[in-house]
């Protein structure tokens, strides 16, 4: 049986084309004030390199670590010249105190915190920063709420606050940040968006067929979607910034 956290490899290229990137405002806030901006950033659980690409575009040196071979292969293609390594949050293939920041995009909920947190602290310099972040669909928009009504709501409560337990004794000063942005998407691509999610990839054929059928109907009949070439999918990027203890 495929576990949800390792289910994405079979859809790696679709994931890379359909998933949203991360806004510069969220990245800048996660890394701290401009004068304190780190130069070497670990993108942990990097997937296909969406966050790594945004970090590079912002001028940072990036090391990407990803456990899934197929996701990592896409990241290596996307990020020529960037170090893309096999590894996991629980076994990071970097020396002690070798990065100025560790960012995690859309992956911390797959980590085992009691093993991952000491590893993250080990590779992070004393003056560094650790920041998991998530792009979460904004269900305050009616058609997005209808989409979530079919595929399930996301966010794991992150819009309302951190829910992954204590980060001490490795980290402290946990600060939340919230950043809104939109990504243009053709309504017909809502099916592909669902196909890039673990709940679709691990579902049986009957459930996958239901999701495809209902999302196709939504895209073709909802008054905010039908007949449109593209619509703006609203996201809230939830960032949780913390410092080494």
UniProtKB/TrEMBL annotation:
One GO term under biological process is:
methylation
Q: What class of enzyme is it?
A: transferase
Q: What is its EC number?
A: 2.1.1.-
GO MF terms here are: methyltransferase activity
Provide the alphabetized UniProt keywords: Methyltransferase, Transferase
Q: Which InterPro entries match?
A: Diverse_substrate_MTase (IPR051052), Methyltransf_11 (IPR013216), rRNA_Ade_Mease_Trfase_CS (IPR020596), SAM-dependent_MTases_sf (IPR029063)
PROSITE patterns this protein is in?
RRNA_A_DIMETH
Q: Which SUPFAM superfamilies match?
A: S-adenosyl-L-methionine-dependent methyltransferases
Domain named Methyltransferase type: residues: 42-130
User: Pfam families in the record, alphabetically?
Assistant: Methyltransf_11 (PF08241)
For this chain, the family text in UniProt reads: Belongs to the methyltransferase superfamily.
In its UniProt entry, what is this protein called? Class I SAM-dependent methyltransferase
Organism equals Hamadaea flava
